[in-house]
Design a protein that fits this description.
The structure holds 2 protein chains of 2 kinds. Chain A is α+β, with helices and mostly antiparallel strands. Chain A has a domain at 58-131: Herpes Virus-1 (2-Layer Sandwich). Chain A contains 4 helices and 5 strands, in the order βααβββαβα. In chain B, helix 3 (46-58) packs across helix 7 (135-147), helix 8 (157-176) packs across helix 11 and helix 11 runs parallel beside helix 14. The longest helix of chain B is centred in the middle third of the chain and has 34 residues, at 457-490. The N and C termini of chain B lie far apart (97 Å). The chains are: A alpha+beta, B mainly alpha. Chains A and B meet through strand 1, helix 1, helix 2, strand 2 and helix 4 of A and helix 23, strand 1, helix 24, strand 2 and strand 3 of B. Strand 1 (3-8) of chain A pairs antiparallel with strand 3 (571-580) of chain B, so a sheet runs across the interface. The structure holds zinc ion (2 copies). Residues 88, 90, 92, 110, 112-113, 115 of chain A line the site of one zinc ion (ZN). Chain A: This is Anaphase-promoting complex subunit 11. Chain A: GO terms for molecular function: cullin family protein binding; ubiquitin protein ligase activity; zinc ion binding. Chain A: Keywords: Cell cycle, Cell division, Metal-binding, Mitosis, Ubl conjugation pathway, Zinc, Zinc-finger. Chain A: Residues 1-34 are annotated as: Disordered.
């Protein structure tokens, strides 16, 4: 932790607005402690976040391979970009690889609801793409 | 004899006996023996009394003695007299008699040793100082030979052997003790034997006997034996100082090859390991270091590993019970500074996958592992294959394999190690602020070679997450900046756009990470806005993926100014830099809006219980940025004055700064992870206790080991881990533990 003492000789550093404040405070004869204030500069916010496919609640799994959407489909090496999740028009989500395997075996319906499978978008996705045409 | 004289009457027989006794009593040997032990023995030295005895023997002829009774000892009359003399002396001797010869020999040997050592020191100067042996001593030796006492089988063999052994042992000890780095120590001992002991013995027993009785090889064996005995006494130090002690270990191996004293060495090492390591005062990494050295040393001494297994079993059992063993091993493997041996071990060129590691106590379900002992005998040297001491008995438990597999086999499961590494990797990556993974990638590659690619999959994805995060962060930051510039141009604003708070993130594929802390709280609106902006940009970039912030984790670097108007119209500013957990950043951010906060209000703002807020606020209070307002009903905080901030030098506050809050930095809650892992066993444990009433920890452990062996749920915990979990269940009032250590279900 470094410590610097800057006894500023006025306006060069302190913005105009603050200086007026400070003059005002000089006249109000409060206890010394209430006169000090705090300025917070965030030099860096290094957060930690997890990503999700935003496909239903947390413990929902891909109906075909039964692994989590954020996991990997059989045959895929890495999660995320390499193992995308796709949504049917019916609203059901699966790993792309899983649906592809399913459709390759002469099936044309959603494995979940048996409606004719058509690639669609999640409701959330639609909203985002509308915002960014 | 009585049968050959059938006609002799009882009276006659008694008379004959009387005569015989008289003859024995007056025999020169008896007289001499009595004189030998008579009252003035104190005034006369042992050599002088020996002289007298020898004189009697030499002047004992058929004329002045009674040869007819003596000849029963031997057909040679001289030998008969000698034996009669010896028998007479022995008949009068007390326990200290032989001992006094041992002392005499030792003193004489000691003088020779002194002389020898002097010669060794002078060495080159004058060789010709053929120091004439003490004439008196030579006479004594001659007398002992005449009496037949020092020949093979003679009555002084035992004290002579003792004296030689003691002398050799003492000499060897002064020469080799604690001297581990010099080579050819045994040659020096041999030199002593050849140049000091053998000449002395030649003086004592004579040249013929020296050769006939094979004194040279007897002395050599004795030297080797003493060499091993001295090393046994200091075997722990020898091991602890390896590899500096390598020369001594190599030499010991050669000497052991003569003496076959491996079991004694094993026993000595085993005992010292237990004494020096198996106690709470020794720290785990020291124990591991000594254990590794033991492996290395014993592999020099006994390549068959049989000895190793016996010697180290107690240390292995002890390490198994220590809770931080796995972590210590993993740290050593991956950290160059603390690693040493293990760090090198992982980087060996000839590293092989750990395939054959099996649980060491998987096969035996009995409560106590039966410890191997020293019952076995070394095979006869003839059948001994070159370089191994024990007959190869095939693959032994915990034996074979390299040092890493020996360590892993302590627990019998490499999964345990991989999981521990994963926890440590998670902490490391979460604390990694520059997204540089070079070191982790390298370590991971090495671990993959040893633990297998499949085992390291999760870790690989974790490292990849960090690499990916770096790219995504830079992408998002660029976009945000160019958005800002575009906006500034569109607004035709002449001023610089406001500085945005720089946000970046470690973005994790949580399925592959250990359980991460995830209690949420409400950020200060300013910080939340920063995060939302970043998250929205992520969503745009990776649509339809979204970010969920793990607010407990991460690091915020802050610069705080305490501003205080001075009476002269100037502004005093005190600036401090901090690096804190997000929650601490949010708490302090509230003080920018308002200089005074009650605990209750802070709790409401953040959604965190007051008690916890108070605990966190202690950080800012300790760092003197914030102080408690006195004299209020409620706990109230306010921004400190510059005067308060400056009080008690900076060094003091620096000390406080390092305190931080206790779980910042440790991103992964180890306990949380373990509990989660163990929860699957809860139903098994409850089932057992329902059926069997009450059980001690060990039984529960063994039963879980026996029954939970399915493919999806397998029990692989240490008794230590299980113990923690049982305690946890007790706290939840599901179980209770009696004073006798028996666990049972809580009756409801
Ligand atoms: Zn799937
Ligand atoms: Zn469907």
């Amino acid at each position: 932790m470094e410590s610097r003492k800057r006894q500023s000789d006025t306006a060069v550093i302190v913005p105009q607005q603050q200086r007026q404040q400070q003059q005002a405070m000089q006249f109000s004869n409060t206890t010394p402690s209430t006169r000090s204030r705090l300025r917070v500069r965030i030099k860096r916010f290094h957060g930690v976040a997890k990503w999700t496919w935003n496909a239903g609640s947390e413990d929902e799994v891909c109906g075909i391979c039964q692994s989590p959407f954020e996991g990997v489909a059989p045959g895929a090496k890495y999660p995320g970009d390499e193992c995308p999740v796709v949504f049917g028009k019916c609203g059901h989500a699966f790993h792309l690889q899983c649906v592809a395997t399913w459709l390759n075996s002469q099936r044309t319906t959603c494995p979940y609801c048996r409606q004719e499978w058509e690639f669609g978008q999640s409701s959330d996705q639609r909203r985002v793409s509308e915002q960014n045409p | 004899m009585a049968q050959t004289l059938p006609m002799v009457s009882t009276e006659q027989r008694a008379h004959l006996g009387q005569l015989r006794i008289q003859a024995v009593q007056t025999r020169p040997s008896t007289v001499a023996a009595q004189e030998f032990f008579s009252g003035d023995r104190k005034s006369k030295s042992l050599p002088r009394r020996i002289r007298r005895l020898t004189h009697v023997l030499e002047s004992w002829t058929a004329e002045n003695g009674s040869p007819e009774l003596v000849c029963s000892f031997s057909s040679d009359p001289r030998e008969s007299r000698r034996q009669a003399m010896t028998a007479a002396v022995m008949a009068c001797a007390d326990a200290s008699f032989l001992k006094s010869f041992q002392v005499l020999f030792r003193r004489s040997l000691y003088q020779r040793q002194q002389k020898y050592q002097q010669q060794q020191e002078e060495d080159e100067e004058e060789e010709n100082d053929e120091s004439s042996p003490d004439q008196e001593e030579l006479t004594l030796f001659q007398d002992l030979r005449t009496l037949g006492w020092i020949r093979k089988g003679g009555m002084l063999q035992q004290p002579l052997g003792e004296a030689l052994h003691q002398t050799i042992f003492k000499y060897v000890k002064t020469i080799i003790s604690a001297e581990f780095e010099e080579e050819n120590m045994f040659e020096r001992v041999q030199g002593f034997k050849e140049l000091a002991l053998e000449p002395w013995l030649q003086d004592l027993v004579g040249p013929e006997a020296l050769e006939q009785d094979d004194w040279s090889s007897r002395l050599s064996y004795s030297c080797a034996e003493c060499f091993c005995l001295v090393r046994n006494e200091e075997i722990f130090d020898l091991v602890a100082e390896y590899p500096d002690s390598h020369p001594a270990v190599m030499e010991l191996e050669r000497v052991l090859d003569r003496t076959r004293m491996h079991p004694a060495l094993g026993q000595a090492l085993k005992e010292s390991l237990i004494r020096r390591l198996n106690h709470p005062g020794a720290n785990t990494s020291q124990i591991i270091d000594v254990y590794i050295n033991t492996i290395k040393v014993l592999r020099v001494i006994d390549p068959s590993d049989r000895l190793l297994q016996v010697v180290t079993e107690p240390v292995r059992a002890y390490l198994r019970r220590r809770h931080n063993t796995v972590r210590c091993i993993i740290t050593s493997l991956t950290d160059q500074e603390v690693g040493g041996d293990l760090y090198e071990e992982l980087r060996r060129q000839d590293a092989r996958p750990l395939e054959h590691v099996t649980a060491e106590n998987e096969s035996d379900d009995d409560e106590d592992d039966e410890p191997p002992d020293f019952d076995w005998q070394p095979p006869p040297p003839i059948t001994k294959p070159k370089g191994t001491f024990f007959a190869s008995t095939g693959v032994t438990k915990g034996g074979g394999g390299d040092i890493l597999s020996m360590l892993v086999s302590i627990y019998g499961s490499k999964e345990l190690f991989v999981n521990e590494y994963r926890l440590m990797l998670a902490d490391k990556l979460l604390a990694n602020l520059d997204f540089n993974t070079d070191k982790e990638v390298h370590t991971l590659e090495l671990l993959k070679l040893r633990f297998g690619e499949v085992s390291m999959r999760n870790c690989e994805i974790m490292v990849k997450d960090t690499d990916d995060s770096k790219r995504i962060v830079s992408n998002i930051q660029n976009t945000l900046q160019s958005n800002d510039r575009a906006k500034a141009i569109a607004d035709l604003a002449s001023e610089e756009p406001p500085m945005r708070d720089p946000v970046d993130a470690e973005i994790v594929s949580h399925i592959f990470w250990p359980a991460l802390k995830n209690e949420q709280f409400k950020h200060h609106p300013r910080l939340q806005a920063d995060l939302d902006e970043f998250g929205a940009e992520y969503a745009r970039l990776k649509n339809p993926r979204r970010l969920v912030w793990l607010n407990q984790l991460g690091t915020v670097q802050l610069e705080l100014d305490v501003l205080e108007p001075q009476p002269d119209g100037t502004m005093a500013i005190e600036t401090r830099d901090f690096s804190v957990a997000p929650l601490l950043a949010t708490l302090i951010a509230h003080f920018e809006d308002k200089a005074e906060w009650t605990l209750e209000d802070l709790s409401n703002e953040t959604g965190i219980p007051e008690q916890q807020v108070q605990k966190r606020m202690a950080y800012w209070v300790n760092n003197r940025v914030i102080k408690l307002v006195s004299g209020r009903d409620q706990v109230t905080y306010e921004v400190a004055t510059t005067e308060h901030l400056l009080q008690i030098g900076n060094d003091q506050s620096a000390a406080f700064a390092s305190i931080d809050d206790d779980d910042h930095g440790q991103g992964v809650s180890l306990a949380a992870q373990e509990e989660e892992d163990l929860e699957v066993y809860e139903s098994y444990i409850c089932g057992m206790l329902t059926n069997l009433g009450q059980l001690p920890l060990e039984r529960i452990h063994n039963m879980l080991k026996m029954f939970v062996t399915g493919s999806d749920v397998k029990y692989n915990k240490t008794p230590q881990q299980l113990g923690m979990f049982l305690k946890h269940l007790c706290k939840q009032e599901k179980l209770e533990c009696g004073p006798d250590g028996m666990y049972k279900l809580v009756k409801k």
